[in-house]
Structure formats: structure tokens, C-alpha cells
């Protein structure tokens, strides 16, 4: 296919190192083009922050060209034709034209270097990423109609989607991710191929799948990305708990559509994120993912009551366990797993507050149990209200407003975020005359419970109460 070239209208946001590097390769007799996502972003009027280049130069030739120019360089990706470098504070990667062949049963590509830009672009995932900007002349190379597809808001593959997804099954996840990030619609042949080939995603490493999932959830329209995963069967491989939320209903047992409810909660949670200086800067993966997963315990806990109602008792506890297992399978780090599962486990704690009322002790426990996730829990709990009954929604919002006011008041009074017993471990040992050991831990827990129930009572009272507790428990002689 012949190259189709047009002049890119505006490259003013492109960092000057791009032209400089292009001139360097041109003087050495080699081609250099900005390629992929950065070109797409320029066409969308966005800044091209990640600069990826492709060239007909071999890795050795690239090293010879940039060695004295770059501030630093590295060869970690040399096996795949990639040389990395840093210049003027920018991190750049230059990759030799490639023609990859994949073993259908392998996770890793075999790499063959090429000498033709069009063939290099042909092996890329989607037409909107199969465009290049020739340097230093800034000519747009678009052999597969990426500009047209971008304008139409559609996602196509340069060749057949079957060949593309056979080459790298992770591209099916990328399709869902671009639906979320860029609002693009996959064309029907791509959707059909994704549906037919979804099981091939099982050969892709959990780490690569996880990274695409995080980008999807953090996209501008995560609902669309998740829906595409569910509709094509990708979610059955990556997040089977989500399509399982599509619970069957019948005329006798009515309850809300848990799947659609969860998608709405995720959308509403994203809307409640803050600016960069706020407590939950957007996009926040933990909040959004907890919102998506908060009801995954419902299918396992659904019960049809004699009254005709449907119950999901303790679904939040079951859901937290299910979420933990899934996140471990996707190789999430422990801190992220802890953060998300804590939110899932606590998302029902608030309900009943308005009717029953909470003591100061209950409010303290709510804050203590939420810990660092309190701001996220506020947003998740508010987002979990999707009822169309305006009166009920207003009542729940008012109750949560009141709870937040009480939390703020108690925090001012007691520095609630750092509630501790009024005696530390050393003081406990001195009062009881015991060495370090389990007794100290039990005493500390007793004093913490007292602190949560009664607030600050002072060290003298705490000592008296501790001695009384110790005598009752037989820890010290009466």
C-alpha cells in the first residue's frame, strides 16, 4: 500500500526535542517518525507527552546516532529493537521498524526487524494508532485511514481483527480501554472477533491484563469499557464477577438490576472525585474499582424470603473476599488490594444510621475502621444511592450530611483520625507490673474500646479502669 501523506495542521505542542532528533537521524541518512499514541493525541488536540519513535536504523545504528546527543541512554529493550534515552528532561524511545510473528500458544512475540514504515504501521493494534509523523518535516503518514476513523469515532484494525488479536490477544483489552479513554466505538468486525476470540486472553500474563484494566477503569467513560468487556465475553476471563451481577429476576421477586446499578455507582463515584489538591484526586482507581465491585457478593448471598422479598445478607463481607481473590489473581499490589477490599467491606455500614441513630462511639468506630479510606468511603456510600425515589434519595443524602458533620465535630474535639488509648504499652506494663506479652495486647485493646466508647477520660481514670479490668480478668491479684 502506498503511503498517504498530508500536512499535520498544528504541532506547536510537540516538544522541540522531536524535531532535533529527527534532524539527527536525517543527517545520518536514516528515517525517523513519531508514531502511535502521540500522533493520535496531536490530532485530538492533546499534548503528546509520551514520545515514541520508529526508524529504519538498527539498534546499533540508533546508538551511534544518539550516544553523544542524549543526556542518558539505556538498552533494556534492545532485544526488541528499542533504545531508550533522556534528553532535556524528556524520556524518549526509538524502535527499529518491526515485523512481529507470534506463536499462537505463546505470550511472547518473536521479533524481526523491518525496513518499511508502512509494514511497521500495519502490525500495530488499531488504525488510530497506525499513523506516523515523519521528522523533521512533520508529514503525516496514514496508510490505513486512522485520521478518518478518529474523526468518525470508530476503532478498526489495520488488517483483519482476527490476525491482529492472534498476534497479541491483549489488543482486545486495549479495544475496551480505548472505548473508555477516547470514547471510540469498535466496528462490528472487531466486536465479532473479540467475542469469538475472548478465550485467547487466557494466555496473556495477569500483569499485562491488569495494566489495561487499570487504564480502562481510570478512563473518561469507564462504563462503556466495562460494558464492552461484558458484551464480548472478555469480562468472563478478566472479571467474571461483574457479568455474574446480571441476576435473573421473575415476576414474584423484584429487585434492582445489580449489574446496571454497579455501573451507575462507578459513574457516580467518578463524578465525586476531586481536583489535584482535593482528598480524592481524579482519576482514582481504588474508588472506581470498589464502586464496580461493591456488590459482587450478592449472587452468592441472594435469598428469596417467604414474604416475597429478596435479601443479600452480609454480601459486603462476602464481596470483599471475592474482590480480594480476584485482585490477587490479577497481581495487584497488597496496598491496593487492602484499600479496595476495605471499601467493599464497609460500603453498607452507613445504612440504618438515619433510622437508628448512632452514638458517638459508633461514629468513632466508623472513622477508625475506614482509616485512610474515609474520604473514599464517603464518596462510595453517597454514590451507592441510585434510587429513582427522590424523597428516599434526599433523605439518605441528608442523613449522610449529618454523619459527616458529626465526624467533623468529633475530629475537632478529639483528633479522631489518630484515636489511641490514653496509656501506651510502656505505661500499661508499669501499671500492671507485667512484662511484654499477650496481656499487654489485651489491655491495650480494652483501653482502645473504652476510648472509642467514652472518648477521652484522662490518664488517671484510665489507670483505675485498667486495674479494675485486670483484677476482673485475673491478670493481677485482687
UniProtKB/TrEMBL annotation:
* CDD domains on file: HDc (cd00077), NT_ClassII-CCAase (cd05398)
| Key words, A-Z | Coiled coil, Magnesium, Metal-binding, Nucleotide-binding, Nucleotidyltransferase, Transferase, tRNA processing
Q: GO:BP terms for this protein? A: tRNA processing
Which cofactors is this protein said to need?
Answer: Mg(2+)
The Swiss-Prot or TrEMBL record annotates one GO molecular function as: nucleotide binding
Domain HD/PDEase per the UniProt entry, residue ranges: 254-415
Q: Which residues form a coiled coil?
A: 393-420
Stated EC number for the protein is 2.7.7.72
- What InterPro entries does this protein map onto? Bact_CCA-adding_enz_type3_sf, HD/PDEase_dom, HD_domain, HDIG_dom, NT_sf, PolA_pol_head_dom, PolyA_RNA-bd, tRNA_adenylyltransferase
Which top EC class applies here? transferase
Q: Does the keyword Magnesium apply?
A: yes
SUPFAM superfamilies noted in UniProt? Nucleotidyltransferase, Poly A polymerase C-terminal region-like
Keyword Calcium assigned: no
| Entries under Gene3D superfamilies matching the protein | Beta Polymerase, domain 2, cca-adding enzyme, domain 2
NCBIfam families per the record?
HDIG, tRNA_CCA_actino
Q: Which protein, by its recorded name, is this?
A: CCA-adding enzyme
> What species is this protein from?
Kocuria varians
- Its gene name is cca
Amino acid at each position: 500500500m502506498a503511503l498517504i501523506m498530508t500536512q499535520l495542521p498544528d504541532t506547536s505542542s510537540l516538544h522541540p526535542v522531536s524535531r532535533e532528533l529527527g534532524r539527527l537521524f536525517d543527517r545520518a541518512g536514516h528515517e525517523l517518525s513519531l508514531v502511535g499514541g502521540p500522533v493520535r493525541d496531536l490530532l485530538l488536540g492533546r499534548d503528546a507527552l509520551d514520545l515514541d519513535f520508529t526508524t529504519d536504523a538498527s539498534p546499533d545504528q540508533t546508538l551511534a546516532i544518539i550516544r553523544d546527543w542524549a543526556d542518558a541512554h539505556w538498552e533494556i529493550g534492545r532485544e526488541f529493537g528499542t533504545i531508550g534515552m533522556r534528553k532535556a528532561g524528556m524520556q524518549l524511545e526509538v524502535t527499529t521498524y518491526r515485523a512481529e510473528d507470534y506463536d499462537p500458544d505463546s505470550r511472547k512475540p518473536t521479533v524481526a526487524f523491518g525496513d518499511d514504515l508502512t509494514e511497521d504501521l500495519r502490525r500495530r493494534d488499531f488504525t488510530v494508532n497506525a499513523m506516523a509523523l515523519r521528522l523533521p518535516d512533520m508529514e503525516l503518514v496514514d496508510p490505513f485511514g486512522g485520521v478518518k476513523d478518529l474523526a468518525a469515532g470508530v476503532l478498526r484494525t489495520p488488517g483483519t481483527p482476527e490476525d491482529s488479536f492472534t498476534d497479541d490477544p491483549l489488543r482486545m483489552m486495549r479495544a475496551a480501554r480505548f472505548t473508555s479513554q477516547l470514547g471510540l466505538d469498535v466496528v462490528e468486525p472487531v466486536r465479532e472477533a473479540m467475542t469469538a476470540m475472548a478465550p485467547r486472553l487466557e494466555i496473556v500474563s495477569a500483569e499485562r491484563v491488569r495494566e489495561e484494566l487499570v487504564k480502562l477503569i481510570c478512563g473518561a467513560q469507564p462504563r462503556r469499557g466495562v460494558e464492552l468487556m461484558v458484551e464480548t465475553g472478555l469480562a468472563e476471563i478478566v472479571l467474571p464477577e461483574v457479568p455474574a451481577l446480571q441476576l435473573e429476576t421473575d415476576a414474584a421477586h423484584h429487585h434492582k438490576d445489580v449489574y446496571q446499578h454497579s455501573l451507575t455507582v462507578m459513574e457516580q463515584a467518578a463524578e465525586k472525585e476531586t481536583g489535584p489538591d482535593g482528598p480524592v484526586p481524579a482519576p482514582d482507581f481504588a474508588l472506581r474499582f470498589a464502586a464496580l465491585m461493591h456488590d459482587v457478593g450478592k449472587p452468592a448471598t441472594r435469598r428469596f424470603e417467604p414474604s416475597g422479598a429478596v435479601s443479600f445478607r452480609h454480601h459486603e463481607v462476602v464481596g470483599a473476599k471475592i474482590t480480594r481473590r480476584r485482585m490477587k489473581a490479577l497481581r495487584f499490589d497488597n496496598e491496593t488490594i487492602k484499600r479496595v477490599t476495605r471499601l467493599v467491606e464497609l460500603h453498607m455500614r452507613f445504612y440504618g444510621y438515619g433510622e437508628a441513630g448512632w452514638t458517638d462511639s459508633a461514629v468513632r468506630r466508623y472513622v477508625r475502621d475506614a482509616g485512610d479510606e474515609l474520604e473514599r468511603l464517603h464518596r462510595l456510600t453517597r454514590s451507592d444511592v441510585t434510587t429513582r425515589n427522590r424523597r428516599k434519595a434526599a433523605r439518605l443524602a441528608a442523613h449522610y450530611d449529618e454523619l459527616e458533620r458529626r465526624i467533623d465535630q468529633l475530629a475537632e474535639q478529639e483528633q479522631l483520625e489518630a484515636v489511641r488509648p490514653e496509656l501506651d504499652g510502656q505505661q500499661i506494663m508499669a501499671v500492671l507490673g507485667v512484662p511484654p506479652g499477650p496481656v499487654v495486647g489485651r489491655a491495650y485493646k480494652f483501653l482502645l474500646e473504652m476510648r472509642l466508647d467514652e472518648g477521652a477520660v484522662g490518664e488517671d481514670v484510665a489507670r483505675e479502669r485498667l486495674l479494675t479490668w485486670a483484677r476482673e480478668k485475673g491478670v493481677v491479684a485482687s
